[in-house]
Amino acid sequence: MDVASPAPHRDPVAARSIRSPWTCILWDVDGTLIDASEGILRRLKTTLEHFGHPPVREAELAHWIGPPMLESFQVMAGMDAVQAEAAVTYYRQVARADGYETGARVYPGMADLLRDIHAAGIPQATASSKPEDQVLRLMQHFGLDGYLDRIVGATSEARDRGLKAEVLADSLRRLQALGVDVSRPVLIGDRHHDVEGGAELDVPVIFNRWGFGWPHEADGAAASVDSADQLRALLLVGDD
Asked: What is the pLDDT of residue 201?
């Protein structure tokens, strides 16, 4: 599913005065653009209790957010592959009933950064392990969809595309199909899965520390940042 909403008008003056060292910018979603931890924690508790597992504690939540849910239910809850698929299906049913946007928020400064990158004429897309329909709903809910040339996430099926490298490759493919120069992409993310997925495709990763990753997960990243302002300095040149 190729998803692109009508984008706001790009300011030609801004595009001339502001540049980027990157030809396109790819975004992780959970822990990078959006903090959906409140809703995720509630749905995980409901799902784990349904399958007879102890509920996840808030302190453990960072271990769950970022990796594909199919992996998390196996690693964190000790489920086998069949049980994990059933848990993912149930979790997504709970999420649809709960509303993907419930309790979610955009991290400070990120909406403005996406807007300014778009105005400068630099293509952007998501590359999220979150199911694509959920990514689309969140981007539309917060008005970020208009700044993105493609909205890309994992497939809705638990077994299918979900590994970061697979999603990242698909995001690049869809941008290239639009005629975007993908020779110098960069991925922004907050987990080691982002760093490892980028390394697999030779895509440099900027690690954001405001997400759910532990400090050591930045190992191998091209750079690390603590705020939207620090990230802006690495993505936009001439943005005074």
From this structure: 96
Whether the Cβ atoms of residue 4 and residue 150 lie closer than 8 Å to each other: yes
- Give the separation between CA 223 and CA 33, rounded to whole angstroms: 17
Residue 182 · residue 162 · CB < 8 Å: no
Output the six-digit token pair for 180.
């975007």
Query: Closest by alpha carbon to 142, among 101, 172, 183?
Result: 101
Exposure pattern of 192-222 as b/e (b: 16+ CB <10 Å)? bbbbbbbeeeebbbbbbebbbbeeebbeebe
Query: CB-based burial of residue 62 (10 Å sphere; 0-12 exposed, 13-18 middle, 19+ buried)?
Result: middle
pLDDT in tens, 42-76: 888 889 999 998 877 777 766 777 677 888 899 88
Q: Choose among 199, 194, 200: nearest CA to 208.
A: 194
pLDDT in tens, 67-119: 778 888 998 888 999 999 999 899 888 988 887 788 899 999 999 999 999 99
Bridge partner residues of 223 (DSSP): 206
CA–CA gap between residue 25 and residue 169 (Å, rounded) = 13
- The total number of residues shown for the chain amounts to 240
Tokens, residue 116: 């300014």
